[in-house]
Amino acid sequence: MASQTQPQDGGASDGMAGLRLSTDSNDRDTNDEPTNDVEKLQLELERTRAEKDVLADQYNGLLAKLTTMRNTLGNKLREDAEELDRREQLIQQFTTQNEELNVSVTTLRDELVLASNESAKLSEELSLIRSRAVEESAHEASIREGQILELQNELEICRTERDEWERVAQQESMAADEARSLLDSARREWEIEEAQREKDAQDLAMEKEKSANLQSVLEDFQAAKDAEIRSALADYELQILQTTQSLAEFKSRALSAEAELSEVGSNAGRLAEVEQELKDKAALIAKLRHENVIANEHLTEALRRLRKNASDENVDRRLVTNVILSYLTTARGDSKRFEMLSLLASILSWSDAERETAGLQKQSAAAKQQAPLGRKSSAAMGGRPSPLEVPKQEESESFSKLWVEFLLKESTQGTPEPSSAATPRQPTNPSSPSGNWSPVGTRSPVMSRLPSLSSGNASSRASPGRDRSSTTGH
């Protein structure tokens, strides 16, 4: 700053000296030319004043610059001092770090020496490992060459097998073409079978409808069977009552025999016979009760199946067709024609006029209007059947057996039934006290009208007009 202000002060003094010289010269000129000198002096004074103002402005500008430079340099010097202190601190830190690094370098040099020694050892081991690896690689190379030869042989074999497989593939392709043709034909056959299956499904639906069509016929048959069952039960009750009376009579005889035995004491043989007769009657009563239970079971099962397979208004066309064909193919004098005609009347629900036209009933026959499918026996009124009613009962029995077996065939086709409920048919024991009674294991005429619950698939496929038991003429 001092060096910069000194030249500026020197320039100002030089300017002042120049002004003095100019004023001195002007004074000398004024003496020579008094008038012009005054003007010149005034002009020179004005010029000098102007220069003075200029110099004053320059001086002020220089002074301001000098002040600014002094302030700037002071701040800069303070910053430099602070920077110097900071750098000294850094130098101290760097010196400390350098010492620490020197210690670390010494330690690392020691470690480097140890590492070089260990590296030498590892180099020796590496050379040994390399030599071993070379030997092993040579051995493996020889093994690999042998394996390559084997693989080449296998490759040749595979090529041969590939050619063989290609030939087999061509054969299989030909077989596949043949199989496709067979598949197409099988598909066509399957379509035909599918159409047949749909047709069978339709036939099955028709068969279901036909099985449902039996209801109307079963309703009529059920009404007739209910009447027959009531008649049979009345017969059984009457027979049981008679047997009970006979038993009471035998008991009274036994008591009288015992009295006679106590009185006489010599008629022991007669008493033994009476006791044996009482035992026989008791066994007969037990058999009758057992047969009554079996009959009730048969009736309950028949009613249940009849209600289960019943329908309202439908008529089985196949049933009617079979009955009509059987009617036409049966001889004119055969009693089955009347049964078939009665069956048609029941199936088709003929009116009284139609029955009279067909010759099934007379106009004055009111009893036939109540039970068109059968006739009640006189036992239902509390008496035994007369000799004139025996053919009618046998006729109703034959017709009922035929009708029930046909209905069971149509409704339970393919359905197994429990064998324990079936009772084999046997002729009536002639040694029984009454001809209408049957021992255990046999069925009375009323029992023979009930359906056989053990009918299988073989009997279910028979025609409705086939005779299943011996019948008497109408």
TrEMBL record:
It is found in: Golgi apparatus. InterPro entries: GRAB, GRIP_dom. It comes from the Eukaryota. It holds the Pfam family GRAB. The keyword Coiled coil applies. One of its GO terms (biological process) is endoplasmic reticulum to Golgi vesicle-mediated transport. Residues 310-361 form the GRIP domain. GO terms for cellular component: Golgi apparatus. Residues 25-39, 464-474 have a biased composition (Basic and acidic residues). Residues 1-39, 360-395, 410-474 are annotated as: Disordered. Residues 91-212, 271-316 form a coiled coil. The keyword Transmembrane does not apply. GO terms for molecular function: small GTPase binding. PANTHER family: MYOSIN HEAVY CHAIN - RELATED, THYROID RECEPTOR-INTERACTING PROTEIN 11. This is GRIP domain-containing protein.
